[in-house]
Write a structure and sequence with these properties.
Number of strands: 11
Low-confidence stretches: 1-27
Strand order of the largest sheet: 2-1-11-10-9-8
Strand content: 35-45%
Largest sheet: 6 strands, mixed
Length: 204
Amino acid sequence: MLVLFAKGMLICYNLIIRTAHVLTKGDSCMEFVIVGKNIDVTPGLRQAVEDKIGKLERYFTPNTQIHVTLSVEKDRQKIEVTIPVKGSVIRSEQVSNDMYVSIDLVEEIIERQLKKYKNKIIDAKHASENFRQDFLDKEYSDDDEIKIVRTKRIDIKPMYPEDACVQMELCGHSFYVFTNAENGQVSVVYKRKGNTYGLIEPDM
């Protein structure tokens, strides 16, 4: 469910899932879970996903699940790929005006993520169990290591999401962290296009 705010009104959209397929690709035993939202997952699209994203099999152990969501909104053709590994999640999404282009792009991005953050990924609660040994043994450049250069502490106050949106606008920020008075959970509201707002809540 997607939760938006527009002019003080809470709007919820239930996205329609059109089709879903669970596939196993050849001898690699990678399990593809492919879902379409507002798009039919045609045999051509399924094949493109298997062929392109299936190249990632060189990194993962057999029986790794790859969750793929294809969606269309006007001329935005988006693919979201999520790969659960022990203690972590590898995720990427790409948008273009051509779904086949989006599929090509997302595989390249995930491959770069795997190489760039290999050490951080496999250190997370024995996540190395999900990766092939030759990938673990190979060294990759870590020139673009993440560096946190500033820490800011904030006073998280209980309020309703609509009030948090107002506070965000008053502060001139693009997001706002608060304690949701409706459920006591730490949540985040953020700006979206078209003078609307998004709400991020923890999945407990």
